[in-house]
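INFO batch 0412 | record 1 of 1 | parsing
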Amino acid sequence: MLNSSLINPSLCPLCGQANQCAMEIEKATGIAQGPCWCVGMDFSADLLSSIPKAAQNQACICATCANQTAQPRA
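INFO prediction complete | emitting tokens
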């Protein structure tokens, strides 16, 4: 079981790759970022439920994992 204090918010909780979260990039660099890529996506309930409980609301899914099931918003 994952410990939420060990979750790296800049890594995808599903694959472990960088998630390119604009909010995390801004925190790390101090440089204002535009809207995150994820604001234009609808994530399926199945995809969101596949995130380990300890990582839910702690780290963003990366675009690669999201694109496997998510759909762009119209």
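INFO post-check: The helical segments are 22-29, 45-49, 63-67.
INFO record closed
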